[in-house]
Write the structure tokens for this entry.
Amino acid sequence: MKAFILSCFRTIKDNVSRFFAILFIMLLGSMFVTGVAGISPHVEASYNDFYQQRQLSDIQIMSKSATGFSTEQLEYLNNDEKVNYYETLYQVDMEVETEEETLNIRYAAYNLQNSKINTLQLIEGSFPTQFTEVVVEQGSNTIRSMNIGDIVPFSMGPTTIDLKVVGIVTNPLYMSKEGDFNMNTDDVSLDIICYLDETYIPSYLPLPKTCLYMDLNMSEKFNYFDNKYEDEVKQYQTSLEETDLFSEENAAVLTLFENRSFAVLQNVCDKINIIALIFPIFFALVVSLVCLTTMSRLIDDERGQIGCFKSIGISNRRIINKYLFFSIVCSSIGAVIGCFIGYYLLPYAVYPAFENVFFLPTELFILEFNLGFASTIIMVICIILVTFYVAYKEVKNKPVDLLRPKAPKAGKKIFLERIPFIWNHLKFKYKSTARNIFRYMGRFLMIVISVAGSSALALAGFGLLNVSSEKVLIGETYIDLSDTMIPVSTIVIIFSLCLCMLVIYNLTNMNIGERKREIATLEVLGYHYKEVYGYIFREIFVMSVIGVLLGLPFGIALLYLILTQLGFGDIGNVKYYSYLLTIGLTLLFSVFVYVLLIPKIKKVDMNESLKSIE
Amino acid sequence: MGILIEAKNLTKIYKSNQLETLALSNVSFSINEGSFTVILGPSGAGKTTLLNLLGGMDDITYGSLTVDSLELFGMKQKQLTNYRRNSVGFVFQFYNLMNNLTALENVELAVEVCKDAFSPKETLEKVGLKDRMKNFPSQLSGGEQQRVSIARAIAKNPKLLLCDEPTGALDYQTGKSILKLLYDMSRNERKTVVLVTHNAALKDIADQVIYIKNGKAEKIEYQSNPKKVEEIEW
């Protein structure tokens, strides 16, 4: 047993570069999938927590009677078991003409400091201490920023009085920077939302309580972004609308989903969730493909050793276990580190980017099983299964066959040679490159598919940036989604390009390892280093070019799939520079990888050419 | 007949982890242009080290080695590469052909980077592979592969042909025909051939035999009447 464990670690030691190749690719893959899949859950969890603290209302009812809610209506709500708590208040949206402009202002009056629903938080100044003082909602994209001391006009019949701003507040109802509409005129945003304290309102001035905010008793502990929550409140909305007291003539019953801020937030999270579903699947596919090639190459290399183990009577099972150990250790380490970074650290980079669209509550983390962890586990299982399959296939061979070296794959004529017009005019080194490319079809496909896959992801990422800069209808309002798509797209682009680089590094590295003898021979023949680099890198570069060109249509297809799911964006809006960037960056990174690998070629000893074939 | 190679106190020390290994110590000899030299010795004696130095594959620790009045001691990597490129042809024990290149292309591979090379096609005809030029190594026998390897070395038109156990991986008959080919090449093309082997039987065909043992040139023999390849046996 001790010898076996020793040999397990020896395998790792002998294959350190492969160990780290799988480890890093798994790390990148799991970091991406958990990171992207975690964006929405993080944002949602943070808002959920915030909303609960601030007692966000589930239902808003606007009375259509000028005097506000009737005793019957309130009585009905008091007896409704579904209702947990409600508050009535004065709330009116008005178009106010000043000397310079027309302002859309919402006036709300209630007991500001003792309210138990949609509680306000003072971020500057103080709450009003007299009738002519108000606090206003913080400035955003639509709501103007006001300073303490500014004046808000308030018209009461024929006279207009000046309300002095004494404080700036936040209301959980308006967390999107898109603010809210004037309820009387569709499609006009409010410029100011101001709050008067009803305590100081003189009794000669009856402000009718025409608005009601309500908290419901939900059937279970809900999350505001849950579909179940949406179903339940909408069901309640319908049931209330069906009563005579709250029928359409008497009242307007609204849920959070008719609140512009909440609708935008919910929509953005939904869209990110769709992206978080599609991208990781493709990413995980490429990651698995690369890892399985690495593993099968490793086992292939150790044929002789496997034969040796078998010939001294070590069981097949034990030999397979050795390789399983290898793949489990490297993929799990990568997966655990990747998940950790993806879940705990990546959101720190993404979360602030939402500041352009939302007022973000303090961040909160909750560990829950998300799609990213599921994809990571699937990737690890994939690698383990493939390792088992490849190892099993190898140990099934007779020891004699394993001990005999595998015959090197024969060269063969390629299609291009049948076109003498081209072939005969090719320089010798290009002929050899052309043959090498098609020599191992499996490897060729592997490189091309991996590069195509990662560049497709990158192009889809760039494309998503391009198409989401159009105005998109969300809820009842058009907003610019690009701001919210920037962080996600950026992550997709960065990770795809990193993946691309790791793929090329891994494959080039393997290629050099396998061709040490050829490299040594070229050196003995007097090839200068530059010429040797050309011999090795040229063919990988050609494969990368084929890969990236194939990746473009795949990327467009992927983007098309995503856009259909998102329900916005036109594929035709992908800018030409996105294609150029994808091609350019992929190839630039390839060259960067070659530069990294130059020392490895330099290290090849010419004596390699004198050694016998292992 | 002039002197092509002159070695004086040739010494090679390998250093690894503060451990110094004296692989070659004060070896001196000279080799005439167009002659056939056999370097003979048991494995581990320093033959390969000597071959590496002669072939410009490794740097000399100290001593002097001139090939065609070119001093190899103290040469930079790039100069050594140029030396290998233009002045040396190498024949390996295991042929070292590129598997995905045809026989002809393997020769072209070597010729492409050097000046004054022979035509690859004609050279392959010379080694008796006129009809096998378009074949890949896997379609050739061991002997044929070694012929390609010899053609590759000769086509470069080098001053010096270095052979590392060229018959080592071949059966007796094939080995002999390869030896004959090398011998004829040396005579007909006036190439200087240096052949490294542990097979003492081969020494009889040489003009000069250098015996290497424990990193030293133990003995140098000149043979005014070397045997023909047909006359030797092992």
